[in-house]
Specification:
The protein is an alpha/beta fold. About 15% of the residues lie in helices and about 25% in strands. It has helices at about 10-25, 60-75, 95-100, 220-230, 255, 265-275, 310-315; strands at about 40, 45, 50, 55, 80, 105-110, 115-130, 140-145, 155, 160-165, 170, 170-175, 180-185, 200-205, 235-240, 260, 260-265, 335-340, 355-360, 365-370, 380-385, 390-395. The strands form 6 sheets. Strands 5, 6, 7, 8, 9, 10, 13 and 14 form an 8-stranded mixed sheet that branches. A hairpin with a 3-residue loop joins β3 (about 50) and β4 (about 55). The longest helix is centred in the first third of the chain and has 18 residues, at about 60-75. The chain starts with 11 loop residues before the first helix and ends in a 5-residue tail after the last strand.
Amino acid sequence: MKIRLATENDNIDLFNAQMQNFANTEENIIYLDINEGLTSNGMVDSNYSSGGYRFDSKENSQRYYNIVKKHILKKAIGGIYNPNTPETKPQDNPEDEDKQYENVINNVSIVMYHNNTYKYDVVKNITFLLPSAVKENYWSKLKFHTNKNSEPTKVTQSKILYLEGTDCKAGQLIPNADTEYNITVMASTKDDKVTEKYYGVVSGIAKGGSYKDFSDFVGKSDIVKLAKTYYDNKEKFKYNAPTALNYSNPQANISKWKVDGLFNIDGSTFVKLLCMGLSYDKSPYGKTTSKLKKDPNYAWAFTRTAAEQAQYCVTQGWVMGGIDVTNWSNVEAGDLLFWDRDGQENGRYMSISHVAMVYGFDEEGDALSIEVTNKTPCIVIKKIKQNTDDKLLFVARIRKE
């Protein structure tokens, strides 16, 4: 770190230069210039220091800690694997390269405690949680590698952790295949401007591999047909809450979700019904039912509450990379689209405010979505490019045979 502590430290500039040279030649040492916000005219501000040798209060020591943390996190940036780099180039023999993946760990579930570093090779499933009681000086590190040539690595992140950096969006790590991730976690402060108790940074090095090919969702034609049954009955719905799915016994509470002869529905309810394999006629809206079950005729169907839809897709590794958000040329029918349209914290996972499903393509070749809006009628089919692509968080494809 570069910092001047007092006027009497005449040799500090020379020391800083020596430390910088040393840091630049050592792989695991980082050189930080932390003068900004802490010094005045090249020295520690007299408001913070005592005699130039120590900080004069716990508050100012914490200020120093926060500034150091800020600069460490800014330094933690990702990289791309360069196969031509001699230090990292794998052997030409494929058998030698495969040795990197011999230590595949099926399941990792940890609580990241203070002052600990956790290192793993390739993992198939990893869950990392954090202590609910936060220490002011907390730090912890995690390193792991995602799969390649197989199903996606499943990653479950602590709900009280906000991450930024490589492959992160709206506070969540959305991991890619064959990537080495290094995560540094610290206690969040008001300077971090997040509501979560912890704040962390992710650096990732992509090694060039990919997950097992999954270009087609086996149920895409079925789920589109299911969606059309609601569209054909769109005049019966209005955008409102609560919906039928807010109740474990929908029929017993029909007066709360059917108002003035119209059914309340929202985007999350609509997508959940589709993912359960339920057509309009088999849903609580078209059938008297006291219990909601997925259709057993669709092996791909799954049940998740509205709040869990996006999180489930992220955790399962269903998020699609490299989506063409200009022409939407590489989306498919059945893909799920998640947006944060207002950029506001709403208490939901990744602050998601809207979800839709890809319906197919029109005669002009434009991708279409089917979704619930606040228009009348509320169930619409529209060109995806009419939505706000800059607010799109991710596109997910159900990976079920």
